[in-house]
Design brief:
The chain is α/β, with parallel strands linked by helices and 495 residues long. It has a domain at 397-493: GMP Synthetase, Chain A, domain 3 (2-Layer Sandwich), CATH 3.30.300.30. It is built from 15 helices and 26 strands. The strands form eight sheets. A five-stranded mixed β-sheet has the order 11-12-13-14-15. Helix 2 crosses helix 3. The longest helix is centred in the N-terminal third of the chain and has 16 residues, at 27-42. The protein is globular, with a radius of gyration of 23 Å. The relative contact order is 0.09.
């Protein structure tokens, strides 16, 4: 038996799966390419037996062919961030125990030194399509499929392990809730080491027989001509992108603004996620385009859990109702079930969409569940039947531009600097990014300015984790428990 995703791709056959400028790739072409990858990964084996395989690929044919090829060979995909540093790649590869890296040829020289150092295999995505039947293993949907690394309240990212049936459940609930169709067309500029891009866009589209147009990143001047020609029926982005779009439209001349806003208004659905969308942004987008953005809530461990309805009220500032097949409850600090509205509690989620465990983190896995309910660490309230997110239980999580960042991970890097004796990292409010990484440091010697620190950080952590604000103090305040009260430190950055 083939995996359901592969079987569905066969039924879509010559439909356009990926549009790449003037060229395109059909579903059949993706199957042929992934067949070549699977055969190379298998060699003389009958099954990779859930071997972990890292995937470093550009958005487009390489990514899908690599992902499907790993799955068809019986392997587990471990996506690598294109924006990560070599040190961050090394952490993910070593922590996951990946035995091979499947890689776009254009990225090979960047990762080859690391592959050589770790003495693991490197498979470049440069083979010819293979239409010859292959003797591929039967992959049970209960087997592991993917490990996504996510920042949490520990100093290093944790690997979130999901089975094929988990991914399928996450996709099917969104296909149903958002009425995906084979006629849909969507741009993809979200990172493909993040669940938003992998599941909500790519997974749902390819499951449905729709067409995806990938871009290396969000660039307004590249997307604008396509939007004007009604190239897309759906659009998914993080709040930061909607803020930038509003700024562009408000600065455009009247004729251009009217042409573009009408084009957005003709799309059947526009979605915002990965961070809270401020209500004024929601309302302003509606004023400009006539579109009521659909907000939803999810995370790496659960896919999507809550969503405003496709047909019904899309309430600014709220993330809606539980999706089909997903159970959600609120639990108070004392552990009691909250049944009344306007009482804050931790969101806990149960369903086929929930991940299996954290890779090699038995204690973290155990701490994250109460029975079969996953503890999200996010606090919400019910208001007139809809959930509204209040924030995180932990101040050590920073949500910036759609990324969930661990303040502890960034602190551990900053403490490697020879001039920093102590530090505290926190998120401070920013109109465009939601929150930005800010650092309060105590120096052991000399002086330190923000630009010098940012340059030092470049080879050590991804660009979006580098502090954007810096305050140097003589001493970090501590409470009776010896901990730094981070909420109070935000006052240092006012003005």
């Amino acid at each position: 038996m083939e995996l359901p995703l592969i079987a569905r791709a066969r039924s879509h056959d010559q439909r356009v799966a990926l549009r790449l400028g003037a060229e395109s790739l059909s579903y059949r072409a993706l199957l042929s390419g992934s067949s070549w990858v699977a055969k190379r990964l298998l060699g003389d084996r009958g099954d990779r037996g859930e071997a972990h395989v890292s995937l470093l690929a550009e958005a487009g044919g390489d990514y899908v062919i690599g992902q499907w090829g790993i799955w068809r060979a019986g392997g587990v995909v471990v996506p690598l961030s294109l924006a990560a540093t070599g040190r961050e790649w090394e952490y993910v590869i070593v922590d996951s125990g990946a035995s091979c890296v499947v890689c776009s040829p254009s990225l090979a020289e960047k990762i080859r030194p690391l592959v050589d150092q770790l003495a693991i295999d490197l498979l470049l995505l440069e083979g010819e399509p293979d239409d010859e039947p292959g003797d591929f293993p039967d992959v049970d949907v209960r087997r592991r499929a993917m490990i996504l690394y996510t920042s949490g309240t520990t100093s290093k990212p944790k690997g979130v392990v999901s089975a094929h049936e988990t991914i399928q459940a996450q996709i099917e609930t969104l296909v149903s809730a958002w009425a995906w169709q084979a006629s849909d067309r969507i741009p993809l500029f979200l990172p493909l080491h993040h669940i938003h891009g992998i599941i909500n866009v790519l997974g749902c589209a390819l499951w449905s027989g729709a067409t995806v147009e990938p871009f290396p990143k969000f660039e307004w001047d590249v997307l604008l001509p396509r939007i004007r020609t009604d190239a897309y029926t759906l659009f998914m982005a993080v709040p930061t992108i909607y803020v930038k779009l509003i700024e562009f439209l408000e600065g455009a001349d009247e004729g251009e603004r009217e042409e573009v806003t009408r084009a957005f208004g003709r799309m059947r659905l526009m979605i915002s996620g990965s961070a809270a969308l401020p209500a004024p942004i929601h309302e302003r987008w509606t004023q400009l385009t006539g579109q009521r953005l659909l907000e939803r809530y999810g995370m790496t461990e659960i896919g999507m859990a809550l969503s405003n309805p496709l047909n019904g009220e899309r309430r600014p500032g709220a993330v809606g109702l539980p999706l089909p097949g997903v159970s959600v409850r609120l639990i108070s600090e004392s552990g009691d079930l909250i049944t009344l509205e306007h009482e804050p509690g931790e969101i806990q989620v149960r369903g086929a969409n929930v991940f299996q465990r954290y890779w090699n983190r038995p204690e973290a896995s155990a701490d994250s569940f109460v029975g079969d309910w996953f503890r999200t660490g996010d606090v919400a309230v019910l208001e007139r039947g809809y959930y509204r997110i209040m924030g995180r239980l932990s101040v050590d999580i920073i949500k910036s531009g759609g990324y969930k960042l661990s303040a502890l991970e960034i602190e551990s890097v900053l403490l490697e600097h020879d001039r920093i004796a102590e530090c505290a990292v926190l998120g401070t409010v920013h109109e465009t990014w939601g929150e930005v990484v800010s650092a309060v440091v105590v120096l052991s010697a000399g002086t330190l300015d923000l630009e010098t620190l940012r340059i030092w950080c470049r080879d050590r952590i991804s660009a979006y984790k580098i502090p954007r604000r810096l305050v140097v103090v003589g001493k970090l305040p501590r409470n009776a428990m010896g901990k730094v009260p981070k909420p109070g430190l935000r006052d240092l950055f006012e003005g």
